[in-house]
C-alpha cells in the first residue's frame, strides 16, 4: 500500500540521500590532482650547481640574459584529493584541478610513473639536441651536447633546451639580456607541441623575473586566461619561429608575433 507524500515530506525524503551522497563525496578520494606553479630553471646557466647545457666539439658563445624552462608541481599520484581540496582550488588563481590521468599515466605505480617521466625527459633532451643541430645545419658535425636538469621529468622543456643550444652555438644573441621563459615539447624536425598547465607556468615565469613567455600557439587562449601583468606572450609553432621572434624582439626589427585576443 502506498501513501501520497506532501511536498515538504517529499523534499525531505529526497534531501536525505542527497545529503548522504554529498557527505560521502566530501570524504571520498577523487580522481584529480591539484597543481600549482613549479620551479623554473635557466637553461643557459646552472641548476642546483650543475651546468644545464654542456657542449663539446665546438666553440660556444658567452650568453647574456636567461632562458627559463617552466614547470608545474602536482600532488603525487598516491596523494588523496578530496572534494574540499577540489572546491578550494577552483577558487584559487595559483592552483588548478586537473584529472589525475592528464598528469600521470593511469594505473601505474609511483615508481613506474617516475621512471616514465625520466624516460620522457631523456627523449625530450635527445629530440631538442637534434632539433637545434638541424636548425643550425650542424647535425653532421662532431658536436656533443649534454643536458642536465635534476628533479624534473616529462617533455615540456624541449623548446627551451633547443633555444639554449642555439643561443650557445649561434652568433646571434637570442635574449638581448632579458629573462625569457617558456614551455613546449619539440620534435627533431623543430615542431613545437602543446604541454598543458600553461596558466600556472606563466605565473611561475613572472614570479622568477621573466618579461617574455614563449607559448605553443595552440595554447594561446589558455595562457591569456590568467596572464600575469607585465608578461608578454609570444606564440610559436616551430623552433625557427621562436628564434625569429626572439631575434626580432632583440633587434627591434621585424614583427614579433602575439596571441590574438
From TrEMBL:
Signal peptide: 1-28
InterPro entries tied to this protein: Lon_proteolytic, Lon_Prtase, Ribosomal_Su5_D2-typ_SF, Ribsml_uS5_D2-typ_fold_subgr
Domain Lon proteolytic: 152-238
UniProt keyword annotation of Signal present: yes
Keyword Signal attributed: yes
A Pfam family of this chain: Lon_C
SUPFAM superfamilies from the UniProt entry: Ribosomal protein S5 domain 2-like (SSF54211)
Keywords, in A-Z order: Signal
Bilayer-crossing regions: none
Matches recorded under PANTHER family: ATP DEPENDENT LON PROTEASE FAMILY MEMBER
Designated name of the protein: PDZ domain-containing protein
Amino acid at each position: 500500500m502506498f501513501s501520497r507524500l506532501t511536498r515538504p515530506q517529499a523534499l525531505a525524503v529526497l534531501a536525505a540521500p542527497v545529503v548522504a551522497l554529498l557527505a560521502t563525496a566530501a570524504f571520498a578520494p577523487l580522481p584529480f590532482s591539484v597543481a600549482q606553479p613549479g620551479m623554473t630553471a635557466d637553461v643557459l646557466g646552472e641548476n642546483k650547481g650543475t651546468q644545464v647545457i654542456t657542449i663539446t666539439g665546438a666553440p660556444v658563445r658567452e650568453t647574456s640574459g636567461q632562458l627559463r624552462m617552466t614547470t608545474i608541481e602536482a600532488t603525487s599520484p598516491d596523494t588523496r584529493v578530496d572534494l574540499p581540496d577540489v572546491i578550494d582550488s577552483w577558487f584559487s588563481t595559483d592552483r588548478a584541478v586537473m584529472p589525475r590521468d592528464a598528469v600521470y599515466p593511469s594505473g601505474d605505480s609511483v615508481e613506474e610513473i617516475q621512471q616514465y617521466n625520466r624516460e620522457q625527459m631523456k627523449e625530450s633532451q635527445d629530440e631538442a639536441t637534434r632539433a637545434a643541430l638541424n636548425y643550425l645545419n650542424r647535425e653532421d658535425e662532431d658536436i656533443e651536447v649534454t643536458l642536465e636538469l635534476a628533479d624534473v621529468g616529462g617533455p615540456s622543456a624541449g623548446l627551451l633546451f633547443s633555444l639554449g643550444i642555439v643561443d650557445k652555438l649561434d652568433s646571434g644573441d637570442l635574449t638581448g639580456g632579458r629573462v625569457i621563459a617558456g614551455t613546449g615539447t619539440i620534435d627533431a624536425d623543430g615542431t613545437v607541441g602543446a604541454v598543458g598547465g600553461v596558466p600556472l607556468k606563466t605565473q611561475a615565469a613572472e614570479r622568477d623575473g621573466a618579461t617574455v613567455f614563449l607559448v605553443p600557439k595552440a595554447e594561446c587562449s589558455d595562457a591569456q586566461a590568467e596572464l600575469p601583468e607585465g608578461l608578454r606572450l609570444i606564440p610559436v609553432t616551430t623552433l625557427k619561429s621562436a628564434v625569429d621572434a626572439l631575434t626580432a624582439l632583440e633587434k627591434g626589427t621585424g614583427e614579433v608575433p602575439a596571441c590574438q585576443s
